[in-house]
Amino acid sequence: MTSGTDIRDAKAHLRYVRISPRKVKIVLDLIRGKDVGRAIGILKTTPKVAAEYLYKLLNSAVANAENNHHMDPTKLYVSQCFVCPGPILKRAMPRAQGRTFRINKRSSHITIAVREKAE
């Protein structure tokens, strides 16, 4: 059991997103460790497809922190953010002389955690 100053993270998960984990990781590296306000500004102005998903997920994590953990939304920062590969849909593309090439349609599981700054 820890003391009364227990540090908790408020998390939000997004599962089975039809976007490659490699593309998501590029945008996650931009917001890791930043204040929530600054991270939201970065996501609004980033011209990547993953930024839209991460913007909604970050807002969800902030709402979880405010409503479930009673944290102050002005003191939050992105403590953790990571992406794991999800299931791969395997498709075939017909090629010349009766051959087929495989097309992998990748998916992702994304997690963002926010935490209050210790003063």
Description:
This protein is 34% helix and 33% strand. By secondary structure, the protein is α+β, with helices and mostly antiparallel strands. The protein has one domain: Ribosomal protein L22/L17 (Ribosomal Protein L22, Chain A, Alpha-Beta Complex), CATH 3.90.470. Strands 1-5-2 form a three-stranded antiparallel beta sheet. Helix 1 (21-31) packs across helix 3 and helix 2 packs antiparallel against helix 3. The protein is elongated, with a radius of gyration of 18 Å. The relative contact order is 0.28. Mean pLDDT is 92; it is low at 1-6.
Task: Give the tally of structural domains.
Answer: 1
Share of β-strand residues:
25-35%
Shape: elongated
Give a short account of the largest sheet.
3 strands, antiparallel
Sum up the structure in keywords.
disordered N terminus, three-stranded antiparallel beta sheet, Ribosomal Protein L22, Chain A, two-stranded antiparallel sheet, 119 residues, alpha+beta, 34% helix, 5 strands
Q: Can you summarize this structure?
A:
With 119 residues, the chain is α+β, with helices and mostly antiparallel strands. The chain has 3 helices and 5 strands, in the order βαααββββ.
Topology diagram in text:
Elements: E1 10-17, H1 21-31, H2 36-45, H3 49-68, E2 76-85, E3 89-94, E4 100-105, E5 108-116
